[in-house]
Design a protein that fits this description.
- The complex is a heterodimer of chains A (45) and B (565).
- With 45 residues, chain A is mainly alpha-helical.
- In chain A, 56% of the residues lie in helices and 0% in strands.
- Chain A starts with 19 loop residues before the first helix and ends with a helix.
- The relative contact order of chain A is 0.08.
- With 565 residues, chain B is mostly helical.
- Chain B is built from 22 helices and no strands.
- The chains are: A mainly alpha (45), B mainly alpha (565).
- Chains A and B meet through helix 1 of A and helix 5, helix 6, helix 10 and helix 13 of B.
């Protein structure tokens, strides 16, 4: 994907440990945003 | 402040300095001093990343924003989790595997020396000045609220920070950050508990939230698409995303945190901690400000939260006008307090009949109080000549010093100082790294021993500590401080991000394209800033796009030129 010049020591593989950490962050953000929106709706009425 | 509170503050300072100095033995070579020999666990790096971002400006300014404007400011952080995921797959592996000390060092490998020089100088200038603001903001507030000399409060923050950062290096920064973050979160939780406990007995937590909601302080999300408004869902998601990508991906004060992690995976996980925790933590800090507002519905607040300006107005020829406003403020507060009690009573189950227009009275008296406070602030502006006078940053410290018991005041003041120290120590450390690695070792003394560079690094850290303290003494009266820092960064952050996008995201970009693209990007941001009313969060998008477009166009032209016979 990138040239050698951009990754001069690119010896590690690109394996991602614990991919659920990243998927979980997206899900948590969606949950937090929905909660904040619902919080404002519920107490603002 | 009570002697016991002073004892707590002194105990905190001693504990942190001793703890920081203990790390000196792990920092006996440049790699240990700047990168902790890449040995730190993800959770320590993650807490250090959060502590670096959460300055006293954030703690005090955000609470003030919560008091005055409710939860809306939380939208500023909406782009952060996505930014952290993107950086985990781009910046973290690239910088880590390149085995660089600074983000700008990488730019020379990818482009050329002048791009590295320009970006590192931009960082030194902007972050050096920002360190002054990081120290001056809480120092000014504490000096006024506690009635202390400003030079004393500046030195109270700057000197201990400079000492442990200078001798202990990045290890001291990271491990003291861990403890400071623990202290800050503990203090916030206790303050929220004390605010709830301080409400009248007929007002529970649910009623407090109801009152905050009625006065429009719990509307966290605004879907309006208006680039002139600073805090909306879209500015947070798009402008905030670009700002966070630039801050965590291109600013050495953050890049250096995750370069100390044990591995690429640990570096990624350290960033993901912020992705999970930052928005809820900021919402909690804002909620603390909202609860201070609810507390002051039942306890008379000062009309002006800045006692220094209050004394100035009272000693001026316009003292009579102020006294008249104060009388009206007092009467309106009593009416609002009654309306708040009535609204709580009307909201009780089984009492749905309501108490004669309580909500309307609450809203109208609250709006009137806001207008009276506005008139008092105008009076201050006229008397002091300070056109940007704004006292939101004094709200929380005033509440702490006037309504919390002995012991907790010391704890909360220590937490504010801790927030200032955690942010400024990382700044001093990263400024020293860039000074030594990108300037001194690159341009001045190229082949000295490791011991020589280590000694110069310690002097550089001390220098930036003194520089920050010096700037702090002059950087007073800057309006809402949190916005000042963010706005300051936005002038070049987006452009810096554009250069890293060219470096990491494309093979075709050349050094010439990156260098002139960066200059063009900053020019475009300057033009947009001075000729439009677009909110500063969008400058990051404008800057990054301008750099990529100009940089790529120049790179293509250059490549074509190279291949001409």
């Amino acid at each position: 994907m990138v040239s050698d010049a951009t990754d001069p020591h690119g010896v590690d593989d690109d394996r991602v440990d614990h991919p659920w950490v990243f998927i979980g962050a997206v899900l948590v953000e969606i949950a937090v945003l929905v909660s904040l929106w619902a919080f404002g709706k519920y107490f603002g009425s | 402040m009570h002697p016991i509170d002073w004892l707590i503050v002194a105990g905190y300072l001693l504990w942190i300095v001793v703890d920081g100095l203990r790390r000196t033995k792990s920092s006996r070579e440049v790699d240990g001093y700047f990168l902790a020999n890449r040995s730190l666990p993800w959770w320590a790096v993650g807490l250090s990343v959060m502590a670096t971002q959460l300055s006293a400006v954030t703690l005090v300014g955000t609470t003030g924003q919560g008091y005055a404007d409710g939860l809306r400011f939380v939208q500023f952080y909406f782009g952060l989790p996505v930014a952290m995921i993107i950086l985990s797959f781009t910046a973290v592996p690239f910088f880590y595997r390149a085995r660089v000390y600074t983000a700008y060092e990488y730019l020379e490998r990818r482009f050329d020396a002048r791009t590295r020089a320009l970006t590192s100088i931009l960082f030194l200038l902007s972050r050096g000045l920002a360190t002054g603001v990081t120290i001056s903001a809480p120092a000014l507030v504490l000096s006024i609220v506690l009635g202390l000399n400003l030079t004393f409060t500046v030195l109270l923050i700057a000197i201990p920070t400079a000492i442990y950062t200078m001798f202990g290096g990045v290890q001291a920064v990271a491990w003291t950050d861990v403890k400071q973050m623990g202290l800050i979160v503990t203090a916030v939780v206790i303050a929220v508990g004390m605010l709830i406990a301080g409400l009248p007995h007929e007002v529970g937590f649910a009623q407090a939230l109801h009152l905050a909601g009625v006065t429009n302080r719990l509307q966290a999300i605004d879907f309006t698409f208006d680039p002139n408004q600073t805090y909306t869902f879209w500015s947070g998601m798009i402008g905030g995303l670009f700002l966070m990508l630039a801050y965590f991906g291109c600013d050495q004060s953050q890049v250096q945190r995750y370069l100390t992690a044990k591995s690429v995976a640990e570096g990624r996980h350290s960033l993901m901690m912020s992705a999970y925790v930052k928005i809820p933590l900021q919402a909690l800090i804002l909620l603390m400000g909202v609860l201070v507002f609810v507390f002051y519905l039942f306890n008379e607040p000062p009309m002006l939260f800045n006692p220094a300006q209050l004394s100035r107005v009272q000693a001026s020829p316009r003292a009579g006008e102020y006294a008249a406003l104060q009388r009206e403020f007092k009467a309106t507060f009593a009416a609002r307090q009654q309306a708040a009690y009535d609204e709580v009573a009307a909201d009780q189950p089984g009492n749905r009949v309501g108490i004669g227009g309580a909500r309307e009275r609450l809203l109208s008296t609250d709006s009137r109080l806001k207008a009276i406070r506005g008139q008092a602030a105008s009076l201050v502006r006229a008397v002091s000549g300070d056109a940007k006078y704004n006292d939101v940053n004094y709200v929380f410290p005033t509440f702490v010093t006037t309504h919390l018991p002995v012991g907790l005041v010391g704890l909360l003041i220590a937490a504010i100082i801790a927030a200032a120290m955690s942010a400024s120590s990382a700044e001093m450390n990263s400024l020293a790294t860039t000074t030594v690695i990108d300037v001194y070792r690159r341009h001045l003394v190229r082949d000295a021993s490791d011991a020589h560079y280590l000694l110069v690094s310690k002097f550089a850290t001390g220098f930036w500590g003194l520089f920050g303290a010096g700037v702090a003494l002059y950087a007073v009266s800057l309006g809402s401080l949190i916005e000042v820092v963010n706005r300051f960064g936005s002038f070049f952050y987006g452009s810096l991000l554009g250069v890293f996008v060219l470096a990491i995201g494309t093979r075709r970009a050349t050094g010439r394209g990156a260098f002139w693209g960066l200059i063009a990007g900053m020019g475009v941001v300057g033009l947009v800033a001075f000729s439009t009313s677009i909110s500063f969060l969008w400058y990051n998008v404008v800057g990054a796009v301008a750099v990529v477009v100009v940089g790529m166009a120049l790179s293509y032209t250059e490549r074509r030129g190279t291949h001409l016979p």
